[in-house]
Amino acid sequence: MISGSTSDPILRTGHLGRVVKEKVLVEDATFEVQAGEVLAIVGPSGSGKSSLLRLLNRLDEPTSGTVYIEGIDYRQIAPRELRRKLGLVNQRPYLFPGTVEQNLRFGPQQRGETLSQDSTEQLLALVGLKGYARRNVANLSGGEAQRVSVARTLANSPLVLLLDEPTSALDETSKLEVESSIQRIVRDHGLTCVLVTHDTAQATRLAERALVLEAGHVVRNGPINEVLHA
Amino acid sequence: MLKLFFSNQLYLVLAQALVAAVAAMLVVLLARRRGIHLESETLVAMLRGIIQITAVGSILLLLLRAPRWTSAFLLAGMIVAAGATSARRAKDMPGAFRVSAWSIAFGSGSVIALMTWLGVIDTAITSLVPVGSMLITNAMNTNGLALNRFRADVLAHVGEIETALALGAEAKNSVSPYVQASFEASLIPAIDSIRSLGIVWIPGLMAGMLLSGARPVYAAIYQFVVLAMIFAASGLTSLVSTLLIRDGIFTPAQQLSLQPGR
Q: Are residues B99 and B217 in the same domain?
């Protein structure tokens, strides 16, 4: 496998695009994300934000261009390893039936590892759910379920956290709880994040840089205040 | 009562077929009164059915003196037709015909071969073809049920499946609950048939044997033998088809290609 240089950004896209049945979902998206940075992808509904995030996680195949992870073309990385490195949190949490602890262990189990009790508790503390390990996921509120979903993705120790509208299905209180969990993760652990949101206020609170999508095209890219308040 | 009017065997059989068809069409007319229109579909299906089964009867008549190996060709033709019929239940699924044909061929073919070798099925064309066709038909129905259920389950759980993929699960593990559910659901009719044997229904084969003068106990035991073979053929078919179709719904990069609206 070709190894990337240490000066490469943690994530870079090169003319990334996806066209399905002549419909352009994303076209010619070229941008970088530096280690420890939070990049917000904003834009109206149907502008291709979620499609772009799915391409980054390779849940969909690009029809043009590619993505580089630390300088390595992601098509050279096994899909399962790639998805571990670029952890995706969906708009809906989709927790698996069982306990919170079982959900957190899912990712490590896929590569034959066991998440220790200590790691489980640390992850739950990070998302503000200390003591929730044995709870059945069926009894969680929407905000709690989404925070379990974030912790479950973090259990895979990703290089980059991809968040797809993580608070759009939540009420105001739950939304702030999830936001504060994300802030804690970024501040305390310096984790690189790509946040898709239609909420520009949320983007301003959480991100340093923003990328604006319209009809699948990147129309602005730069520091958040310049891009969103231009 | 029909015997009072028809002394000729051919006319009697044709009259029986007509009466049965009229009974079926009466149901269609009743459905029409409730706004359900099945007229043309039922009429075409019945016409097709009578033509096909009469053609097979005629072929069997011709084959009575043919070498025994010709039944292999007949059964192979039935498997291909069963694969095509079954694949219609799994529209949009990549390779549905290939999966159905191979699964039915493996499931029913291996049971037919084994049972013929053991002497459970007689090698005479008049025995091997009808019994083989029963196994193939049931394998076809089971395969159709399995694929239909799997397709519906996957389309209803795209979020869960892609969440598992995004967490690093292998493609086959991300759909394993739906593979298992489809396999189990597809075998419900076969299990219920064995369970209700003799209580709810007396199958056609046993009825035929009784009508042709076989001793009831022998007819009953052979009917059980046939149902057990049907279960084995159906189970093997469903097992193979759900495994083959599982791999077909993912791209080489482990992306779920079966998606709503795609």
A: yes
